[in-house]
Specification:
Length: about 220
Amino acid sequence: MADTDFDAAHTITDEASLRALYPATHTMAALKCLDHIDRHAADFIARSPFLCIGTQTAEGRADVSPRGDPAGFVRLLDARTLAIPDRPGNNRLDTLANIAANPVVGLLFLVPGFDETLRINGRARLVTDPALLDSLAVDGRAPRLAIVVRVDEVFLHCAKALRRSRLWDPAQHRDRAEMPSLMAMLTDQTAGAPADEGTLKKLDADLEEAYRRSLY
């Protein structure tokens, strides 16, 4: 597929041109960025069961990955350090390999029912300290490692995006049956053709069993 092209006259390529397109930010938005986790950020993190972590390869290729657990799963080690358990996944290890090559990360925390979000930027390490991992165990199962982030920037983000999207509004929830199952889509993408009904039912059942057995 060819890249969609645009006239250079309609493409922003420098920060000065970008800022000329928008009004100046207001004072509170400029001042709200902290270099540590204050009590409000700590309270937000304690209520959050879900975050997205943005990472980059050494060459700057970007990736964003979700992380989820019971609320408060991210452990605050001190006012500038937090630990995220790495639970079992598909073993692509995109996030972890990126951190090994390039420690810069961005975190976005969500709390169900809150329209505001919390953003944290910092530098991450991959840590296998047994005491830390044991403190992050669920159902007696400790993670293989933890992503430990040294905080550079912390700030609360306003509600506009979640209010526009009506993310928490049950009236906006879509019927999952509108699209094929995950295994149906992956089979189509990887095999080039949909699986037959019997095979697909087994694949869906196997995935649900894997979820049951390997969340932790």
